[in-house]
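User: Can you help me understand a structure? I only have the sequence.
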Amino acid sequence: MTEKTNGMGATSKQVRAIYAIAREQGITEEKLKKHIKKKYGKESLGELTVKEASELIDCLRQIEAVNEDRDKNGDGIKEVRKWLTRIEEKMQAIEEKLTILETRYEKVLDRLISEVELKQGLRLSMLEEQMRALRAMLKEYFKKEEETPKCAVCGQPLPQGDYRLGEKAEICFCSEECEKEWIKMQEEKEHEQK
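Assistant: Let's start by predicting it. Here is the structure, written out as tokens:
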């Protein structure tokens, strides 16, 4: 009977043996992968050659023998490692369940947010549109605030504001002559209206 191999790679029997011995010795799959990468420069058990797999099995059996000798002396290292492996496997299962729960929680939260948006009639696009309109209004307001005043008669820019006040005013003049001219124009308008 011939054992299945993946090309020149380790046999399925070797792979099963490696996992079994490692698990029994409290060596997690993650630690095993790190060892394989460090010692053989490969990413997984499936990439090992038959010779490398045999070498790894021998190494794991040596660890097993040392642990059994220690166990005979009463320090219980083998049992501790088994328990640690079981705990790590349980922790990994719990982490997977937490990831699933987190995904479910996010979906439920997204659905609730959507329902609230629908019930209140406010869609994000409407809020964005309102924000754009508000920004445009503020921009226009501050643009008016920042405009340099001009003389009401001749239109000359007045960066310092009215010639008398030295600040911006509703109606500004560049000189006393322009102010008198404006007053005269206003009187003529009033006279025409009568």
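Now, to help you interpret it: Residues 12-75 form one domain. Confidence is low (pLDDT under 50) at residues 1-6. Let me know which part you'd like to focus on.
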